[in-house]
Structures are given as C-alpha cells and as structure tokens.
Amino acid sequence: MKRRSIDQQTYYRGVPTAPYDLVKEISLALAVLLVVVLVLAAVLSSPDVPPVTIQSWARSAPLDFLQTATAELQGSTISADYGPPYNIDADGLDPSDTGASVQTWGPLAPQLWAGVHQPINAPETDVIAPLRLASVGRPALLAALATYQAAGTSQEQAWLAAYQKALTKASVTGPLVRVPAGAYGPVNLMMQALLADGRAGALDSLLLHSGRFYVTDYTKPLLFLADGGYFPGLAQAQKLTGSQWGMMNETGRYPGQAWLWLFTLWYQIPPYNTAQNADLLVVLTMGLLTTLLLLVPFIPGLRDLPRWLGLHRLVWREHYRLERQHRRPGGGGGGSASR
User: Fold this and answer.
1) Domain identity same for 190 and 67
2) φ/ψ of residue 176, rounded to 5
3) Where are the beta strands (DSSP E) in the chain?
4) pTM exceeds cut of 0.85
5) Which of 91, 178, 218, 290 has the most crowded CB, counting CB atoms within 10 A?
6) Chain segment 225-257, per-residue pLDDT in tens
7) Residues 156 and 177 grouped into a single domain
8) What is the pLDDT of residues 288-336, one digit of tens each?
C-alpha cells in the first residue's frame, strides 16, 4: 500500500490540480436545465392546431373543393401530371411527357431512374374510385357514374369545361353550392355527391381505401389537398411555405426542426431560388457537403484546419495558461492536492 501511494504521488507530481465536486456540479446543471425546460415549455409550447382533413376542407371552402375535384377529372392539377413516382403521361396526350414536376440536371435524373412505384391516376384515384365505393345504395349516383364513364373523352372534357366555368358563377349557401343550369351532363350530380361525402368525413376514408386492415399511407388525400387552394392558403397564413423558410412541423413562430434551415437556406439564394430543378440542386449540394464532411479526416490540408486555426486553445485557454505558468522559470512544479 505504501509503495502504491508513493507511485501515485510521483505520477501526479508537477500536474496542476484543483478541488472539484463533480456530483455537486452535475446536480446544479440538471436543476438549471430543468428550470429552463419548464419555462420554455410554458412560453413556446407546441400550438394546438387541429389537423387539416378533406372534411375540414369541404366544410370551410366547398367551392374550392368542387373546383379542385373537377380539375382532377380534367387531369389539369399538379398531381395529375406530376411525374414519377406517381405517374408518367398522366394526361394521355403526349407519350413523351414524363410529368410537369420531373427535375433533371444534365444526365442526372434520379426521379426518372426510380420510376413510377406509387401509381396515381388523378381522375380515377381522387373522384371516380371514391364515388364508385360510395355509390352502394345510391342508384342516382350509380347511374351518373355509368353515364359519365360511357361517354367518350371529348364529351367528358366538354362537360367538365362547362361545369368548371359554371363554378365561377356558383353561389354558396351554408353546406350547399348552387350551380347555374348548364350542359354538363352527370357531372354536377357526381360533384355534389363527392362534396356531401367530403363534408360528412367519408371521403377521408374512401381515399385511404386499400383493402388492407392497417392503413398508414396518406399520399392520396395529401395530394388531393395540395391540388386545391385551401391547403396552400393555410400554409401561407402559418408562414410555412418554402419562400417563408417554413419547412417544419410546428407552425407560426414556434420552433420546429432547427436543422432544416440548412436545406431551406438554399431556396432563398441564387441560382436555387429561380431554378426549375431547385429540389434536385439542393439535394446534390447537400449530398456534396455531407460527403466532404465525412471525408474531412482523409483530406490533407482540410483535416489540419482545426490545428492551424487553434480554436482548441481558445476552448482550453485556462489549461494552456496554467501550462505556460508551469514552464516559466520559478513558476513552480507542484500543484495543490486534489480532493
């Protein structure tokens, strides 16, 4: 025991030491953090914003709902001709059309490489299929669907164009949207049935129908919502659009995923803020920066920057100050006993 005590003293001889109560420091730090967390939780708590659903859309903006549903049948919405992973040549007019939202950069086209793996046919997915499921026990709706689907494409488009024009003169009275009489065949009956299902909350479930017991894929209702003006309007009001740096789950002035600022930053500066393929450029930029970060230990010069800049000396300035004092002549070689 005496030998071990001497060895320990010899080992630590000349090393500056100071008394330090680790348990006390940790306890104080945890107490301060607890107070800070409780205060911030009270001041900046997550807002209780109700979820946006097809039902809330149909009730709050029925006219916008009908205009969007009609546009889905026309194949003129964003999701109708989005491109991979949802569709290719969704409008059926141009075989070379790969979708309005496909982004490429030279030979790089990852969106096309992935292909269509979640098929979305807007007219069928958003309108026809839900109405077909809801037509059980509704002979008038079933007959309207049969009439619409038996007509040719040109006749369907003529009906839809006339109905879309009539919606600009429609009047909204409570839950009802009254459309002037016109030559739009069975379209009005179909749209009114879809609106009624939407207001009742049935359309939310009909769009999720997959034949499986558990449903966790909300792509269809989300795309339908995004095609209208109601959902983007809510994002604008909550300052959550891309131009407002709003890529987060939280709303308003509340903090969200702070790490996403590095992605949204690029969308605000040239050339990203004007590029048609901004999403792809941002992904490539972040991929390059991430690769450089991973390769820092292997890149000569770059890996030596911390040592050249000497930031570690600023962080550990007290240690280096004591070390300089120890090295000075007469600076003393021993330290106080540690406890």
Assistant:
1) yes
2) -100, 140
3) 171-173, 176-178
4) no
5) 91
6) 999 999 999 988 887 787 777 666 666 666 566
7) yes
8) 999 999 998 998 888 888 888 888 888 888 888 888 888 887 655 544 4
Q: Are residues 168 and 270 in the same domain?
A: no
Q: How many CB atoms lie within 10 A of CB 128?
A: 19
Residues 242, 226: Cα–Cα separation, whole Å = 14
302 or 95, greater pLDDT: 302
- Domain region containing 32: 2-44+299-327
**Co-location of 63 and 124 in the same domain:** yes
pLDDT band (50, 70, 90) for residue 201: very high
| Residue 157 forms part of a structural domain | yes
Residue 133 corresponds to which amino acid?
L
Please tell me whether residues 58 and 164 are part of one structural domain: yes
Specify whether the CB–CB gap between 206 and 133 falls below 8 A.
yes
Comparing 206 with 214, the larger pLDDT belongs to 206
Average pLDDT over residues 107-133: 93
The 10 Å Cβ neighbour count of residue 250 is 16
For 157, other C-beta atoms within 10 Å of its C-beta total 14
Number of structural domains, the chain?
3
- Would residue 304 count as lying in a domain? yes
Domain boundary residue, one of 212, 230, 248:
230
Q: Nearest CA to 270 among 258, 285, 255, 248?
A: 285
C-alpha atoms less than 13 angstroms from C-alpha of 130 in its C-beta half-sphere:
29
* Strand 176-178, strand 171-173: pairing: antiparallel
Does pLDDT of 95 surpass 50?
no
Q: Which two tokens stand for residue 327?
A: 């090295």
